[in-house]
Amino acid sequence: MNFYISDWYVDVNANQIVSGDQQIKLESKVMALLVFLAHHHGDVMSRGQLEKAVWPDQVIGYDALTTCLTRLRKALGDNSRQPKYIETVTKKGYRLIAPVRWQQNNELSPTQKSQQPTWLIKTIGILSVVTILVISAIWYTSNNNDSDYLNSQPQSLSIAILPFQNLSDKNDQAYFSNGITADIKIALSKISGLQVIELPENQTQSNNEKMAQNIHFNLLGSVQRAGNTLRVNVRLIDNKTHHQMWAESYDSEITEIFKVQDEITSQIVSSLSIKLTKEEKKRVAQHYTRSIEAYDFFLKGQSLYVQHNKTSNLMARQYFQKAIETDPAFARAYGAQSLTYADAYRYRWDSENENSLSTAISLAEKAIEIDNELPQSHWALAYARVNNHQYSLAIESANYSLKLNPSYTDAFATLAESHIYSGNEAKGVKILRQLMRDNPYYPAPYASALGQAYFFLGEDEKALSSLQDAMEKNYSLITSHVMLVATLSRMKKTDEAEWAAEQLDTIAPQFMLEDVVRIFPIKDEVKQQRIIDNLRLAGIK
Fold this sequence. Notes:
Shape: globular
Radius of gyration: 24 Å
Strand content: 5-15%
CATH class of the largest domain: Mainly Alpha
Low-confidence stretches: 118-155
Largest sheet: 6 strands, mixed
Number of domains: 5
């Protein structure tokens, strides 16, 4: 049920809050937090209670709730030091203190009231539709002969991989269904002529439908795990005809999961009439481990690593280590563990270990030694090398990763960062914009890197837009916060820069100006100093 909180109307289904002319979209987790607090209005809710309510089926890091609260307060215009909405009760938790009123059954929402039609609005609406149709016809005609980016690309089949649903009795099995989704995406991305897009779990149905307009096929599925048994349901949908091209249900022992993944990939290839080369057949059938226990540890680590914060990074490293101890030949686990050490060095999450970066390089090299044909290992080495200011070697490793898998977007992103930090920002921008055009649901680090490139190029408005985009996707990403403060400061937006600096202090209280050198491994020290100078202007020491 929708409700009012002070002057804000909360439209739960639309994931938005409305006050006057303001309409602010909330992420699904932020809305879930607000609804839970509203249902417990005036009560102090502990951190544990909030985490269980908002993330019932996920393993999360300590910063997840803090990030969610920060976003909610920002949307409401609240101040944690002088709260009008959400009060922090020291050592106990949080409580909603603003008045709450639930919407009555027959009561119109503010949006519905504002949409009461008049003859003028109807007339304008009709004229607008006609105008749009005319403009669309002109655009379509003029673009038939256009040679823009999209039209210049080779035509290929495209498939969207929607996150497989977790139907297990235990909610904490979401990492397993997410891992299967990711591995099927990786297998399909090794096929030339097939563009693979993984849609994020938190997107609305309308966004998915909009995305599907430019994608040929959708792959949907669900995973149910109970003890040693596994059920995987899969459907392949033609978006143009809405015809179900193929569907299957797999019931097997958990030890057969790799066989199930192979079968799904094979059936998709067959349904789409794709002819694989001998090399592609070899790559698609490639497995990383035969140990289900090691694979399970690995998937748990992956689900934590992508949260990009100190606590989840350390937890992910521990799971990757367990995977390696279970299967010492698990090359992909070595590569994944390498990333945790590289990030620990970059963000000073492991301040007592100055050898984190060299450890990261060694782990990536070990992964390559075990399996030289694994794209993820070469990407991990590229990431460690760029943080070690070895730009040409990083570019070499990223390119080798792309040789093994031409659709490997993470390798493309690290390739772009290598060019940006070595001084070729324009080339980095070109790579990133291509990535983001290919997949409108690109992850936050791509937008953050693009924002950095624009900052170094002196294009502050573009930098600001990209960095805000990155923070919408992942509020915990430190690079976005740091560069946002620097950008706002250089744009003379003093109040906004100081607010952004406060948010940076919330998610990274240990951050210091000297950390800029690690977080942004830039060849040109003058550019590093520009970041530091602008951060200092915003009050960061």
